[in-house]
Amino acid sequence: MWPVVTSDELTLNIFRKSIDEAEATAKIRDKDIYIFGASVRGTLLGMVLNEYGIERFSYVDNAAEKWNDNINDHMICSPSILEDIEGKYIFIPIENADSVEKQIQKYGYKRNISYVRIYVPQYERYMQEISGKNRIDRIIFGESVLNDVPIADINDSLGIALKKSYGEKYTSCCSMDCASMRLFYFTLKALINNDKIPKQVILFLNFETMTSVHAKLPRTQHAGLLEMINEFSKCQDKELSEYLPYAHSQSENYKYELKYSPQRIGLIDASNDLYRKEYSKYQMLYDMDINSDEFNYLDKIISLSKSCNIIMTVYILPVNYELLRIYYPEEFDKKYLNNILKLTKYCMRKNIKMYDMSFLLSKDKY
Predict the structure, then answer these.
(1) Rounded to whole angstroms, how far apart are CA atoms 145 and 157?
(2) Using an 8 Å Cβ cutoff, are 349 and 310 in contact?
(3) Coil, strand, or helix at residue 128?
(4) Beta bridge pairs of residue 362
(5) Which residues contact 104 (CB under 8 A, 6 or more apart)?
(6) Nearest Cα to Cα of residue 262 among 277, 246, 247, 244
(7) DSSP per position, 289-314
């Protein structure tokens, strides 16, 4: 359902460790295994279970729209299937899992006995990039692609490679799953408040980030990380403090999330290819709105940079253009190139250097 071929190495390692510990303490191979959360993280955990030769498991999700669908031939069930706790073990890989944990505890499940909540310290790693150095000459912002590695072939991520290239001592890479321009804006603002003004900001952009709905999606809120950034800042950021209540409430707005996920097409037993096609359409083939929330925050990043004489450079990340031309032979070039033109004109007006890497990689590199 969710096409997953790369992952953050930190997430992969913690998933593997969690499975090792569950095997040692709960003998999970003798139990009915459920993954709570039919999403990207749940898909990845299922793939790691497959690595271990564990094929017998199912998914559970609170969204009724997902029930009776499947992820890689593993059924998605209603949480009611968990009410009888006998012989069951649950993995919870999702972020913001407090409500899910309370839900299954009511059924009688015990943490680290009949379920495990998997915590990946991505927020702590992000904060280390800005708080762990007294001097930052260059800061790199981008989505999870900067931390991702091929699942089947662990090499340096793009972020690590860039830090090595620029010099790790004074280079920071702030990358986060489903990051928004808002997150990067408040990060840069906190650094400036703390007198850690970088000489250069490098921003890696992908088209999904710049959709008109991206800033409102629950998965892009990262309320916990914004709280950490607010605490890190020497002077309280009124703008951020006023935003935080919305971030917390919107993080739980799963109906809004589902509205813009691949599952909104409402197909049962859909192939990964079909979901990938639908997902790429809304990621790439939309009319870019330079008045959207994401562009408003990008404006703020640029204004902050200019006010502090920070050099700013934008890179457009590569896309699987060959596959997209197969999916949409008539639409892709016209709509995608129109959006590239909008971005080019936007950066020219702002006097920002932009490098377009859209067509850098052929299909076999994905």
Answers:
(1) 8
(2) no
(3) helix
(4) none
(5) 36, 79, 82, 90, 92, 115
(6) 277
(7) -TTSHHHHHHHHHHHHHHHTT-EEEE
